[in-house]
Amino acid sequence: MRESMRRVEVELPRRIVVVPTYQEREALPRFLASFEPTGFGALVVDDASPDGTADWAEAYARDHPWLHVLRRGGKEGLGTAYRAGFAWCLERGYEVVGQMDADLSHPPDALAGMAAELERGADLVVGSRFVRGGKTVGWPRRRTVQSYAALLPARLLLRLPVVDVTGGFKLWRADALRRIEVETTVSQGYVFQIETAHRAARAGLRIVELPITFREREVGASKLSAAVKREGIAVVLRLARDPWRPR
Ligand SMILES: Nc1nc2c(ncn2[C@@H]2O[C@H](COP(=O)(O)OP(=O)(O)O)[C@@H](O)[C@H]2O)c(=O)[nH]1
Ligand SMILES: [Mg+2]
């Protein structure tokens, strides 16, 4: 058989991490370089970033078959990006689906230990800033106070067993995402993290938190806005009144 006719079967990883991006053209190349050795696949979900994040990612994906890019029409919010990304991964039969920020805040080398917890029987593993051994680097005190101000009332009102309920570094067993019916979550923005933690707890999933070191971004800017915070309060209050019930 001629070389050119031989089809090369590339075994794609059955584990993938969803990486939402908005205006991350500067951070993404560095993130992907540090991510590649993990052996996980990555799905970049970009909301038409004007800085050309998606164009760059698509070009990079041509030589990096473990990378996929989902382009969306406009900035619709972190929660909607995750819903679209999770649907993409579940349709394609991935067994483990994760979440990570593109700004190098979450350490890729923690993924192996998180995956080991799934193999030991966890349904959801949270890379946690706020359990013993976890920490945040580069956060002004104001940001720590803000984070606790969001996290503590949400934890109390919803009786969440997770400490780092607002964090965005997680690995899910694909079946666990199906159990929580992630496609029917309602959050547009960052409160998606709390909504999914709430559903995970209500569904009785086995949740493990592992300590991580979170580093505040050195390039690009945070997308956390006042509207996102307002939606956070509204959704938490709604969930407290009318919690989701597993089928
Ligand atoms: N696709 C998409 N990604 C978003 C959106 N908002 C934030 N992100 C991404 O979500 C991740 C976390 O956002 P970031 O601004 O770092 O939030 P912070 O760490 O809380 O300051 C980053 O990778 C952002 O690019 C959005 O509306 N759509
Ligand atoms: Mg960030």
Give a brief outline of the structure:
37% of the residues lie in helices and 17% in strands.
Can you give a write-up of this model?
With 247 residues, the protein is α/β, with parallel strands linked by helices. The protein has one domain: Spore Coat Polysaccharide Biosynthesis Protein SpsA, Chain A (Alpha-Beta Complex). It is built from eight helices and nine strands. It has a seven-stranded mixed beta sheet, sandwiched between helices. α2 links the parallel β2 (41-46) and β3 (67-71). α5 packs parallel to α8 and α7 (192-202) runs parallel beside α8 (226-241). The longest helix is centred in the middle third of the chain and has 18 residues, at 141-158. The radius of gyration is 18 Å and the shape is globular. The mean pLDDT is 94. The protein binds guanosine-5'-diphosphate (GDP) and magnesium ion (MG). Residues 20-22, 24, 45-47, 75, 77-78, 81, 101-103, 105, 168, 217, 222-224 line the site of guanosine-5'-diphosphate.
